[in-house]
Amino acid sequence: MVLALFLWLTVLSILAIGLVVVLLALARQIGVLHERLAPLGEQQNSHTGLEVGQLVPRLVLHTLDGQPLTVGDALPAGRFQLLVFVAPECPVCKRVVPLAKQAATERGMDLLLIGDGPLPELKAMVAERPEMQDLPLLTGVELGLVLQINRLPAMVVLDDRGTIRAKDIVNTRRQIEGLLDAATANTTQELAHTGVTSHVAV
Fold first, then answer.
1. Spatial distance between the Cα atoms of 102 and 111, rounded to a whole number of angstroms
2. Cβ pair 58, 162 in contact under 8 A
3. Most buried among 86, 87, 105, 195, by the most CB within 10 A?
4. Alpha helices, DSSP H only, in the chain?
5. ω before 153 within 30° of 0 (cis)?
6. Angle at Cα 126 formed by Cα 50 and Cα 100, nearest 5°?
7. What is the mean pLDDT of the chain?
8. Rounded to an integer, what distance in angstroms lies between the CA atom of residue 142 and that of residue 68?
9. Which strands sit side by side in the sheet containing 81-86, from one edge to the other?
10. pLDDT value of residue 193
């Protein structure tokens, strides 16, 4: 009887220890997910690198299949280029891509995805996301280093001269629309200030 009671208490102790370990592991994972998924809002104070109003240097990046594509080239007058920085391990990025794609289509902007991560993981991400498969996804850390993109998903809007018109972290449709509105407003104000007229895609 005493032996059975001792064995039962031992089993309960082991189960309790196991439960504590599981709870600690879950708490850690919840903390990681909370950090990744929490609304980021505007992060203007954390920006470094090239800023709004500066020209992006001409950089030749490559698509997932190795085709060269240049960022920073002159575009047709009034055209905007929308750069969205994504990574395979970023769950918010997967939610933002279709929102950015819809917004770019509605406003007549050219959307480019800039991937951060190993090539096999980027290819797997695109294969799993149908909305990404008809979009160019470029590799190469140069652009991210030039712009100092430290958190994802980040969005940068370039005008037809390769000038940065807006730059920020986004994770909702409202933030995307606000950034695009700021980009077109910045361009319109500059043209009005200099006395230049142009058709801006909106």
1. 10
2. yes
3. 86
4. 2-37, 91-107, 119-128, 142-147, 173-194
5. yes
6. 50
7. 83
8. 14
9. 68-71, 59-63, 137-139, 110-115, 81-86, 154-158, 164-169
10. 53
